[in-house]
Inverse folding.
């Protein structure tokens, strides 16, 4: 099932804020991403505090790791590792070790 980009952007912003408020991330820690469809993912930007992330800051990537749109670099986790996980339809959530 495809996720609309607007809904995904809003969800990522909410998740970033909730993670920060719960003390689960600090500053630029962590990455949040959503698979939009079979070919694209939306990711948090690198070098930005998650509590400050706005919907317009998010980076749209193709699963091969190319930046489709966005004024920032994608999160440091890298699209190559995201692409590996997200190419599997059964993966819903994951956490990469620091």
């Amino acid at each position: 099932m495809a996720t609309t980009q607007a809904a995904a952007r809003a969800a990522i912003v909410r998740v970033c804020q909730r993670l920060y408020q719960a003390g689960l991330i600090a500053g630029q820690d962590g990455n949040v991403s959503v698979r939009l469809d079979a070919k694209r993912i939306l990711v948090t930007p690198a070098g930005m505090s998650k509590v400050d992330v706005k919907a317009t800051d998010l980076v749209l990537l193709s699963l091969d790791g190319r930046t489709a749109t966005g004024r920032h670099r994608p999160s440091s986790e890298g699209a190559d590792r995201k692409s590996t996980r997200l190419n599997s339809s059964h993966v819903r959530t994951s956490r990469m070790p620091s």
